[in-house]
Design a protein that fits this description.
Blueprint lengths: L7 H8 L12 E2 L2 E2 L5 H14 L23 E5 L5 H8 L3 E6 L2 H13 L5 E4 L12 E7 L8 H10 L1 E12 L4 H14 L8 H7 L17 H8 L3 E9 L2 H9 L3 H4 L2 H11 L2 E8 L1
Parallel strand pairs: 3-4, 3-6, 4-5, 6-7
Antiparallel strand pairs: 1-2, 7-9, 8-9
Helix pairs in contact: 9-11
Length: 288
Amino acid sequence: MTKNDRNPIQRWWATNPMTYGTIHGSADYAGKKIEMGSREFFEQLDQEFYGWNSNLHATRKFDRLFPYDEYANGARILEIGCGMGTMAMNWALNGSNVTAVDLNLTSIEQTRQRFDLFGLNGDIRQMDANELEFADETFDYVYSWGVLHHSPDLAKSLREMMRVLRKGGGFGLMLYSRQSIFYSYKIRYLEGFLHLENRFLSPLELASRYTDAAEKEGNLHTWPVTVSELRTMLSPDAKDLKFRRFGEEVGDIFEYLLPGVALLLPRWVTQPWRRHFGWSIWANGHKN
């Protein structure tokens, strides 16, 4: 048994992978059950995932965030926390030299299966983000999407991310925001205050239970960050550091608070709320 096999966070995510199914961890999509690991499964998963982030795509998926053209033609790319391999696939299609790591073996097996099915090349490995098994300055671009807020030692994970990035190389990082409407209303107010959960749960336990897989009482560790905290952790190693906020969940919360009325609001009315109070923080820049 490896060290990762004994990790409770690794075990939980191996059992409850991010499939974007109707029920977290399942390959059930609105009553349509699909065999996990099949081509149809990956295509359905991608459709759901892309739909959740539709305004981040222009001519290519997520090209409003990722500098694909800057890191094509064999550039060395690392994804920390590859999940089911959607984003790693897009970088491979870009002509980049992709390495993808994840803590749990289910994600590794599924990402390898995806790359085989779609005829893609990539180095897919099981690895802990706190102990990356790469030499210093191995990669030209490193990114992580919605993963490292599950790390019990985020600062260490970020130091590892920057360690393996070459000087002048780029990075992108998405983490959940503790200054969001979702956290303030759904987690702290609705669950913590109205449902009295804060009498029994710490702030960390409350956030973990009501973020990813809330229908299963959450996961073992999710702690959203603030921009200020993230800036403090990244600034020693980063230059031209930028932050962006977004989150389609803001529209759902508006609809809950203003039933019927919210459906009539044009996007330009709610867009400023997404920019200032969205659930997702995107940090990007280059290594000093």
